[in-house]
Specification:
Blueprint lengths: L3 H36 L4 H11 L4 H22 L2 H7 L4 H24 L1 H15 L1 H12 L1 E3 L5 E4 L2 E3 L2 E10 L5 E15 L4 E13 L4 E13 L16 H27 L12 H30 L1 H15 L5 H28 L5 H4 L2 H19 L1
Antiparallel strand pairs: 1-2, 2-4, 3-4, 4-5, 5-6, 6-7
Helix pairs in contact: 1-2, 1-3, 1-5, 2-6, 3-5, 3-10, 3-11, 5-10, 8-9, 9-11, 10-11, 10-13, 11-13
């Protein structure tokens, strides 16, 4: 299908792209994942387990940028060495020269989109669930590194002076009520945590402990005290985010939310026409509660529609970035490769990404149809790329 010239360019692009993607991924892992995991107190074995779940989600962003860099390097070098001029002098059209880049860009767009279909969302899902299934490791790692453990949706906090093996030294445990206020405090010289995954409970064994209950003003000292604390459940009461769903699951969920939203809105209109009488057993009026439910469904529907439209738009970035990178790299033939890359990346940073963020914000709020809004940046860059191609073909 390709001639010798096109095959040579294609393999140059593939080599530069592969090396650049490995380098960019390594930088991301070292500077981002490892640093954040270490800050959370996770050990090397935990980091190694999390990396395969984190990296797939970066591909829709790193692959287009890496493709742009590869195009800038290969075609910038060819233009700088006057290879492009020699090829055109031989009567070969410029479209023949850039065809390998478009072939690779199209191939990468298809690969990334196929990964975005199910593999990447399921990796996000497994990543979130791993936080719960490795709850014991997470708590002990956090206590070793930060000397405390507290989460917004967990009704207890832990503070320790030191951790020796599984023993907590000079530990303080606080129970919180439903309003987030301190209900009981225990100061223990030593303590150990035992995790019951079957019953989703944590047993806290405390020794030489002072206990204080704030509501009853009860204080006492004990040689041994045992508390039962709940664990977050991995598969129950967990909202699955839009980014964790495959495209078929997103489409199915959109249908469910739209049906539920239609029913809730009908109930809301009926309730507005015939408002129910307030009762003492309902601290929140039924009308307000129903309005909150409608607002939550509208928000979820916006997130689902944005996620569904954003994925193909991001994946097509491999081809759009190629459309920009090829003519600019050839045009600025006297510049170095890094300058070519920065010049190509400038309109993407200034135009594409801000428009994408703007469309995501408006799409989630329902003020812009994401099926069209997500493609505005790609359309502008595509037109710019076609204009640049026309200009270099005329020169």
């Amino acid at each position: 299908m390709f001639g010798l010239l096109q095959r040579s360019i294609f393999w140059d692009l593939l080599k530069v792209f592969s090396l650049s993607l490995i380098a960019l991924t390594s930088i991301f892992v070292l500077a981002g994942v490892v640093q954040e995991a270490s800050r959370q107190g996770l050990g090397p074995e935990n980091i190694v387990e999390l990396i395969p779940l984190l990296l797939p989600g970066t591909l829709p962003f790193t692959v287009p940028a890496t493709m742009l860099f590869a195009v800038s390097v290969v075609y910038g070098r060819m233009a700088h060495d006057n290879e492009i001029t020699a090829i055109k002098a031989a009567g070969v059209p410029i479209r023949i020269v850039i065809m390998p880049a478009f072939a690779l860009g199209t191939l990468l767009s298809v690969i990334v989109f196929s990964l975005y279909w199910e593999f990447i969302p399921h990796a996000h899902n497994r990543l979130r669930e791993s936080v719960f299934t490795e709850f014991e490791t997470l708590i002990y790692a956090r206590l070793r590194h930060q000397h405390c453990f507290q989460e917004p949706k967990v009704n207890y906090t832990m503070f320790v002076q030191d951790v020796q093996g599984r023993t907590l030294i000079q530990a303080i445990f606080k129970k919180l009520d439903d309003m987030g206020k301190v209900e009981a405090v225990a100061h223990a010289a030593e303590a150990e945590l035992y995790f019951d995954m079957k019953n989703q409970e944590i047993t806290v064994e405390m020794y030489n402990v002072q206990v204080s209950y704030h509501k009853t003003n009860q204080n006492y000292t004990s040689l041994r005290e045992r508390w039962q604390l709940p664990m977050p459940k991995p598969n129950e009461n967990r909202n699955v985010r839009a980014r964790e769903r495959s495209i078929p699951e997103i489409q199915s969920r959109i249908v469910e939310v739209e049906q539920s939203l239609t029913e809730k809105r009908a109930q809301l209109e009926e309730m507005k026409r015939n408002p129910p009488a307030p009762t003492a057993s309902e601290p929140i009026p039924a009308l307000i509660a129903l309005q909150f439910s409608v607002d939550a469904l509208v928000k979820e529907l916006g997130e689902l529609r944005v996620e569904k439209a954003m994925r193909p738009a991001l994946c097509l970035g491999c081809l759009i970035f190629t459309l920009i990178g090829c003519p600019v790299a050839i045009w600025f033939q006297r510049r170095d490769y890094l300058s070519n890359f920065v010049t190509c990346f400038l309109p993407i940073v200034v135009i594409n990404y801000p428009l994408l963020m703007f469309a995501i914000h408006l799409g989630k709020s329902g003020r812009l149809d994401p099926d069209y809004g997500m493609w505005i940046g790609n359309a502008i860059l595509g037109l710019m790329g076609l204009f640049f191609l026309w200009r270099i073909s005329r020169r």
